[in-house]
Amino acid sequence: MSRTQKTVLVVGVDTPLRRLLLKELQSAATSASLRVTSSLAQAKVLARPLAPALIVLEESAAGGSPLQQAARELAWLAPVVVLGGPQQQGPLAPLMAEGSVDFVASVGAFAPVAAALVKRRLRGAHFAQTLSGSPVFASPEELAETLRHELNNPLTGILGNAELLLARRDRLPQWAVLRLEIIADLGARLRETIRQLAETWTPQEKAQSASST
């Protein structure tokens, strides 16, 4: 496996979903491989040497453990996408609020939704890896500008759409309102973090501004 190749660890036994994930991974923004295990215990053993970019946990693989407990244990090792019944969203809400877990309700045609989420997560991991590689940027100012453009622009769209939907909360089910509030809260927190990082990484701009006054 190359140094840039990422691994997705699937914990479960849903073969059609596995095939769909493989198809999506082949067209992902960065190369990725898929490892599968049906055992939660084995997943925790595999995750350490594999260092997966993402873990997909099916509810059936949690065994006798509460799903939120299984997700928390795996979230120490990598971000987790949980696939479970709609009733699991409430117990998983604290982990979702932390940003360590995503949830897809395993009802109806949920497999394409799960595969698309995995694909987006991989793209995000690829972008984060690019940001962390200091040779890519000529200066801290260039890194700050990339943060502002590449993160703030889509984040503004995410927050705007979440707020538009929340304005019609009386027409939405309670679980949808809860998920939208989590999106809005995490988005606002991320925007503030971006602002602080951008200010930290623009020392020359600050110095020039101070000298011109």
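Above is the first protein from milestone M3; the second protein from the same milestone is given next.
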Amino acid sequence: MKCELSETLLHGYVDGELDAAGAVHFERHLESCAECAGALAREQILRQTLQSSSLYERAPHSLRQRILSSLPAAPESQRTAGSFSWLWPAVAAASLLFSILSWQFFPGSGRQAQQATLASAIVDAHLRSLQPGHLTDVASTDQHTVKPWFDGKLEVVPPVQDFANEGFPLIGGRLDIVDGRTVAALVYARRKHIVNVFVWRAQDGNLPSGSGTEQGYHWSSWQREGLTFCGVTDASPADLDELKQLFLQH
């Protein structure tokens, strides 16, 4: 009999569309369901193959020549000194080529895209946590209670500190989904504001550190000891930077 979870949850899990509880539930199901584990492996292999494959073939030079020769010549009136409308197709093609070359040879543009994706995912996760009942899976101000709770649930156990004396009391922690990966979320208070600090193992060439504002929420990411941290809050950027420095110092 075919497992119904392979139909209802598998693709949502692969696409990162499940909430933290749903993702954890499906991961536990995988431990005892060979069918779903096999389906997940096949789906991941398929996606990796499509991403790594060159799904195009360069057109031969002869085809380019035939296309160019079939194009009508520009009217003489459009070749006058005051009219360059016949140049616009060439300009558009040159702009497209420049964009492609910039993406390939100037990795800064790729990093900016990564940061934009990360910022959007982080803010979305922060907003989900503010819904009733979603803020914490383990509610405690004791770091020695919160840190062991993550043991066995993630690749790495995040460093957990209570910064109550510095104005950032620990509230608790939870599992969350950010950009398709399961991460730890450490929850702090700053006066009447909530600060989520998401933590996961640094990978994918190490996303660059950065900061910014998305949908009115401030975010800041940094790395330390093989981990990526990203904090988000509606408190001031200065407050978020202060918490970042506390993490970097401890």
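Note on the second protein: The two ends are 52 Å apart (CA to CA).
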